[in-house]
Amino acid sequence: MDFFSRYYDHTLIFKPKNVLLDDLGTLRFKRELMMALNKQEIKKIIINLSTVKIQDNTGLSALLFARRYALGKGGECILVLPQPKITSLLKQAKLAKSFRIIDNEEEYEALKKELEESLKIPEPLEDDEEVEESIEEENNGQDKIILEDISSTSLPKDDDFSFEE
Q: Which among 21, 43, 59, 86 is most buried, taking Cβ atoms within 10 Å?
């Protein structure tokens, strides 16, 4: 059971992977979601449910938890690509209109693209393209920051850490 989070300003995309929303799964879902929400001020929560299965109404409490949090911040909670059983349970519980539901991949990709464009996130670099030098100039042209060979930045290795007392 894995959980992935991606932040776009005040928006969180939360994607549980291979989660069964039963009693134990619902507790883990809520805990992981709270940890993701505590990292940044979030108003809009987008939950990708494409690999989430639900056993019973217990799992709906996790989704309602996310909805209450988002509404409390003046935002919204969006459910993306829910499994048919989740949609069915939401309808039976008369909660389907409580969430914005995106049920096709194209609409979800368009939403992500809109988020990226709103933040002016640069296009990812091609694999064979390397950043060797970046120069930033202030308006007066006197101050320059030069970053050379970013790819050779020294990162800590496992050997740099000792667990001995």
A: 21
